[in-house]
Amino acid sequence: MKYMKDQMIVEFDSASKNESFARIVVAAFATRLDPTLEEIADIKTAVSEAVTNSIIHGYENGDGKIRIETVIVEDTITIIVQDFGVGIENVKKAMEPLYTTKPDLERSGMGFAFMEAFMDELFVESEIGIGTKITMRKVINQGENHKSQIK
Amino acid sequence: MEKKDFYEMNGETLIVHLPEELDHHSVEKIREGTDELFLAKRIRNVVFDYGNTSFMDSSGIGLVMGRYREVRYLKGDIFITCVNQKVSRILEISGLYRVAKQAKEVEDALKMIQTNYCG
To answer: What are A46-94's pLDDT values in tens digits?
Structure first.
């Protein structure tokens, strides 16, 4: 089997209307791995959470750029969502389910929990005043039955 | 999607027909709409209709939780109806079913509300 690598980079303004754009563009890129509908839904939700975090927390609904880099290597998709905003003071605390710094905006505190639930791996790097970088990884089509389906 | 009426009143029950994509962007608009209705009318129950919804993230959880806090004062209920497979997993993981009641259709939720309050 030939070694396969593919990369896509997109950068856009931090605005809530771009949330759907972000998840659709990553999902479209992921289709070359022939994912199941459920896997696509997982990716869309995870991307939506990361981008929404950048908009609300990273830039506090102000101006800024959000960068998404997506890399496919063999059957693994890696999605890196990066902002250059305020950064997270306490990453460990921020990742606790139901914890939110913005209850007034009715944030549920489930963002990181969903990213963790729907992706195989999640790494969060953040620095105050520099920004936040979320790296998520997911292996697509792990099941043997999928292979028999496409035959 | 835009053409459809999002909100419907039935007695003291507000029915919210949710859009196809329930994210931070669309949730903000719905929250503004429901806030206005909560100020203008006496709302005891809220029925969320997920019939058209094929995408949802944690912003959608915040929306339901927020309305739950509002109806709690009047001892009302929140209902989640017409959930399809695409959003059911999100709803299950979120633990929303611990605070919201589940009904198959909007009509079923309205029936449950009637039996509850009128014997």
So the answer is: 999 999 999 999 999 999 999 999 999 999 999 999 999 999 999 999 9
- Per the CB < 8 A criterion, the answer to whether A92 and A124 are in contact is no
Residue A148 confidence (pLDDT) = 46
The phi and psi torsions of A24 (rounded to 5 degrees) equal -70, -40
Radius of gyration of chain B (CA): 13
What is the second-level CATH architecture of the domain A5-150? 2-Layer Sandwich (3.30)
Determine the Cα–Cα distance for residues A107 and A53; give it in Å rounded to an integer. 10
A117 closest CA partner among A53, A34, A46, A44:
A46
Residue A137's DSSP bridge partners are A78, A121
Q: In sequence order, what are the residues at sequence separation of 6 or more whose Cβ sits closer than 8 angstroms to the Cβ of residue B88?
A: none
The answer to whether residue A104 neighbours chain B at the CB level (below 8 Å) is: no
DSSP state of A74: T
- Per the DSSP assignment, residues forming a β-bridge with A5 are A73
| ipTM computed for the complex | 0.88
Q: Which domains does chain B have, with CATH numbers?
A: 7-113 (3.30.750.24)
d(CA B96, CA B99): 6
Chain B residue with Cα closest to A38: B86
Q: Are B106 and B81 contacting, i.e. CB atoms less than 8 angstroms apart?
A: yes
Residue A59 pairs in a beta bridge with: none
Q: Nearest CA of chain B to the CA of A113: how many Å?
A: 9
